[in-house]
Specification:
Layout lengths: L1 H7 L2 H12 L4 H8 L3 H12 L19 H17 L8 H14 L4 H4 L3 H13 L3 E4 L6 E4 L17 H7 L14 H5 L5 H11 L5 H8 L3 H12 L19 H17 L8 H14 L4 H4 L3 H13 L2 E5 L6 E5 L11 H6 L14 H11 L7
Antiparallel strand pairs: 1-2, 3-4
Helix pairs in contact: 2-3, 2-4, 3-4, 5-6, 5-8, 5-11, 6-8, 11-12, 12-13, 14-15, 14-17
C-alpha cells in the first residue's frame, strides 16, 4: 500500500503523514493535513503501529485542552512553540506542528503524564490559533503565555494564578505586527532538554534579532551549543563573533544615533521601572517596540540587539542615565562619570538651524541640556 501512496503523493507529504501517525495522530487528521486518501492512511497506520486505527471521531473542542489549570499551562507552552516556528503564516503547517510537539515533549513540565497533550490536542490548538478562535497572550504579571478566545472573559493566569482584569486583557490584545523571521528552527530545539517554556520562548525571540549567542545564554541559562544550532536553523549561517561595544558612549555619536539610543532606553526603562537587575524579557519587548516605532533612518543609525543589551546593562549599573529634556520633553542619555554633557539630541537640531549673529551653525549649546542637567543634580524626576 505504501508503494501505491508514493505514486499519489510526493516524498515530503508521505514523510509528514508518517511523522504524524508515529505520534498517535488520528487518521482523519492525517488525511486533512496531507490530502492522502483515507484507505491509504488507515493502511499506513496499521503498518506503523501494527494494529488497526482506533474508531470514532477525533476531539473537536479545544476547551477540553484548557482545563484544568495545569493542562492550560501545557497548551500555552505548545502554542508558544508552534507560533515561534510559524511567524506570520496564515495556514496550519503540519510539519511545523510536529516539530513544535517534539520540542514540547522535551520541555514539558514534570506533570506531563497527568496533564500533558497528545498530538491530536496539539492539532486542535494549532487549528484554532490559525483560525483566530484562540489567541496567545503574555501574562502582565509573570510574563508567561496563556490562551484566550477573543470573546472569552479574562479569567486568571494559569501559571501564576493572578487575575487578568479587563485592563490587563485589553493591554494583552494590543498585538504588534509580526517581525520577519528565517526558517523555523529544528535541530537546535531538540538539543535543549528539560528547559522551561518561558526560557525557550525568550531564547527564540532574542535569536531572531541576531544577537551574540553568549548574550542569549546569559539571559536564559540555556547551553550555548544548542543556541548556536537554533541560530543556524533560523538564519542559515553561524552566529557572528567579535567583541561587543565597550559602553553607551559609542551609541551616542553621531547625534542621530543618540536619538535612537535614547528612544530605546526610554522604552526599556518604561517597562522596568523600579527593577534593579537587567530584565531580558523586558529588553526583548522594548527592542521589538523600538523596531516598530524607530525613526525612518534606522537602517543607518539604528541599534542592533547587541547594542540594546549594552545599553540596558549600563542603565542598570548606573554607568548611563536617562534624562528628560526641559525644552522639548524628549529623552536623552548622559554618562555618569563624563565631564561633558551631550544635551538633548532632538532639539539640538532645531537650535542649530537658527544662526546667531557671529556664531556658526553647530556652535550654539542648547539651554535645555543645562536645564536637564540641573534637574538631575537637584534629584528631581527624570525620564527613567
Amino acid at each position: 500500500m505504501i508503494q501505491g501512496l508514493r505514486t499519489q503523493a510526493d516524498a515530503a507529504t508521505l514523510r509528514v503523514a508518517i511523522r504524524l501517525l508515529e505520534r498517535g495522530a488520528r487518521t482523519t487528521l492525517v488525511r486533512v493535513a496531507t490530502g492522502l486518501p483515507g484507505a491509504g492512511v488507515r493502511s499506513l497506520y496499521a503498518q506503523v503501529h501494527g494494529r488497526r486505527p482506533p474508531q470514532g471521531p477525533p476531539p473537536q473542542q479545544v476547551t477540553e485542552q484548557l482545563a484544568p489549570r495545569r493542562r492550560h499551562v501545557h497548551a500555552a507552552l505548545l502554542a508558544a512553540l508552534y507560533q515561534g516556528l510559524t511567524p506570520g503564516r496564515a495556514v496550519l503547517d503540519p510539519e511545523a506542528l510536529v516539530d513544535a510537539y517534539d520540542a514540547y515533549e522535551a520541555f514539558a513540565p514534570e506533570d506531563r503524564q497527568m496533564h500533558g497533550l497528545d498530538i491530536n490536542g496539539a492539532w486542535l490548538i494549532a487549528r484554532d490559533l490559525r483560525a483566530g478562535a484562540l489567541r496567545l497572550h503574555p501574562c502582565p504579571h509573570c510574563g508567561s503565555p496563556y490562551l484566550r478566545a477573543p470573546a472569552q472573559p479574562p479569567g486568571h493566569c494559569p501559571q501564576c494564578g493572578q487575575a487578568l482584569g479587563p485592563v490587563a486583557a485589553a493591554a494583552a490584545d494590543l498585538e504588534r505586527p509580526p517581525h520577519p523571521a528565517g526558517p523555523p528552527p529544528r535541530g537546535g530545539l531538540r538539543a535543549i532538554e528539560r528547559a522551561d517554556e518561558a526560557r525557550v520562548h525568550l531564547a527564540l525571540r532574542m535569536l531572531r534579532h541576531q544577537p551574540r549567542v553568549a548574550i542569549v545564554a546569559l539571559a536564559t541559562g540555556l547551553p550555548e551549543g544548542a543556541l548556536t544550532a537554533i541560530y543556524h536553523d533560523l538564519h542559515g549561517a553561524a552566529p557572528r563573533s567579535g567583541p561587543l561595544p565597550e559602553g553607551v558612549a559609542r551609541l551616542m555619536v553621531p547625534r542621530r544615533r543618540h536619538v535612537h539610543a535614547a528612544l530605546l532606553a526610554a522604552l526599556y526603562q518604561g517597562l522596568t521601572r523600579g527593577r534593579a537587575v537587567l530584565d531580558p524579557q523586558a529588553l526583548a519587548d522594548a527592542y521589538e517596540r523600538y523596531a516598530d516605532w524607530a525613526p525612518a533612518d534606522r537602517l543607518r543609525y539604528g541599534l542592533s540587539f547587541n547594542e540594546a543589551w549594552i545599553l540596558a546593562r549600563d542603565l542598570r549599573t548606573g554607568e548611563a542615565r536617562l534624562h528628560r529634556c526641559v525644552a522639548c520633553g524628549g529623552p536623552w542619555l548622559a554618562l555618569t562619570h563624563s565631564p561633558v554633557t551631550p544635551g538633548c539630541p532632538t532639539c539640538t537640531r532645531e537650535l542649530n538651524r537658527t544662526t546667531v549673529h557671529g556664531v556658526r551653525r553647530g556652535r550654539e549649546r542648547p539651554s535645555c541640556a543645562r536645564g536637564a542637567a540641573a534637574l538631575a543634580d537637584a534629584g528631581l524626576p527624570t525620564a527613567g
